[in-house]
Amino acid sequence: MKKTVFYTVFAFLFFNQIAISQVVEDPEIKKMITEIKAENLEATVRKLVSFGTRHTLSDTKSKTRGIGAAQQWVKSEFDKYALESNGRLTAAIDYFTVKADGKRINKDSQLGNVMATLKGTDPNDNRVLIISGHLDSRVSDVMNVKSDAPGANDDASGVAAVMELAKVMSKRAFPATIIFVAVVGEEQGLIGARHLAETAKAANWNIVAMLNNDMIGNSLSSGTNVRDNTQIRVFSETIPFLETEEEAKMRKATSRDNDSPSRLLARYIKTVTEQYVDQLTVKLVYRNDRFLRGGDHTPFSQNGFTAVRFCEMNENFDHQHQDLRTENGIKYGDLVEFMDFDYLRKNTCSNLATLANLAWSPKAPENVGIEVKNLSNSSALSWNAPEEKVQYGYQILMRETASSHWEKTFFVKDTKVEIPYSKDNYFFAIQTVDALGHASLPVFPVPIR
User: Fold this and answer.
1) Digit-coded pLDDT (tens) for 333-390
2) Contact by Cβ (8 Å): 219, 227
3) Please, is 120 exposed, middle or buried when counting C-beta atoms within 10 Å of its C-beta (0-12, 13-18, 19+)?
4) Which fold has domain 36-360?
């Protein structure tokens, strides 16, 4: 009888302090999602394909063919979007020189990433979000700069998403800065992305999240002929590349092998995508990229930034890295006709929901910890408000240790709480949230003794 009374009182106090979070949707994000049009994305992909080849080492002088013409066109489109941004969006081609390496760069070359920066409105907010697609294309021979290499899905799809988001989002103001970039040199060894990542590290940019979009517009797999335009894969690293010895000790002590910053970002993407985008589920893939392969997020991960890759659910290898030809009745090549533009639209909307929520969110809580001084079947969590500002509230995310995604979300106003769930059986994370439901990235707690 006494035990029943105790647990009843405990539950009463608990639910008076904590509320189960209700889904809050920002109407402005919903409006932006309606502005993303499949026909606009298709028009952009077709224009990029019209340059014949966008091989990194192709013609830079022609106004109609090659990587140089494609760069200038993307820059001109960014400039158009800037006219409706009240001066917040600026565009540039970040040129840099790469020395011949005897591998995929056969001569000293000037390369350039096309960048549009939407400056944050809060001078005290130095957070940076980056979204990328790669502008270059290729055929079967990675050194073939002459043959037509349409690169419709790989990766005009990613560049089209980046450009469409720059157009829609630059009409709004965000406290954090967003950089939209079409990188070059992906097929030659992630060169453009590495240049940008190293530039960011040298300049000490506070990159909160880097979203790489590479092949997000095809819904039909080769071989199996499975068609699926309801799922998108998000790849995230397990153990950070730059993990220190102390961080490794903490990871092992807290069993944090499945909660790297990039993996927390991937779960964030899944949450907001499935909240805002109809008929699209995020498939969390627990590796940095496809088996033994890589993408433009990898140099950012290698430089210590939180980065993930968006990639279609089913790849079609008949239309990836292929010369244009027909053999045995099969048409090969990365052509527009093989793309699914409504699928591309949904995947672009997933990126929008992620970027907008993060760019409007409060900063993440600081000094997040979980008390371990006493044995208990409850868990005591505490944290500090970011930069000592008054916040609307916080969300406690919780899942069982065998679960891949968060299962419960509790809303609290205070910065310290005890919940009747054992830390032996559950993982937790804390995020700051505002009244419109914009949430910071979650922070995994460390032990407090």
Assistant:
1) 999 999 999 999 999 999 999 999 999 999 999 999 999 988 889 999 999 999 867 7
2) yes
3) buried
4) Aminopeptidase (3.40.630)
Angle between helices 27-35 and 261-276 (to 10 degrees): 80
- Say which DSSP state 243 is in: -
Mean pLDDT of 275-292: 96
What is the predicted pLDDT for the residue at 9?
43
Question: What is the mean predicted confidence (pLDDT) over 61-82?
Answer: 98
The 3-state DSSP class for residue 84 equals coil
Q: Radius of gyration over alpha carbons of the chain, in Å?
A: 23
Contacts with 15 (C-beta within 8 Å, 6 or more apart), sequence order? none
Dihedral-angle region of residue 35 (phi above 0 means left; psi in -120 to 50 means alpha; beta otherwise): alpha
In angstroms, the CA 181 to CA 193 distance is 9
2-24+365-448 CATH choice from 2.60.40.10, 3.40.190.10, 3.40.50.300, 2.40.70.10: 2.60.40.10
Name the residue ranges covered by the structural domains of the chain.
2-24+365-448, 36-360
| pLDDT for the residue 370 | 96
Which residues is 312 bridged to in the sheet? Answer: 232
Task: Indicate whether 175 pLDDT > 70.
Answer: yes
Cα–Cα distance measured from residue 194 to residue 115, given in angstroms and rounded to the nearest whole number: 14
Question: What is the helix (H) or strand (E) element at residue 70, kind and residue range?
Answer: helix 67-82
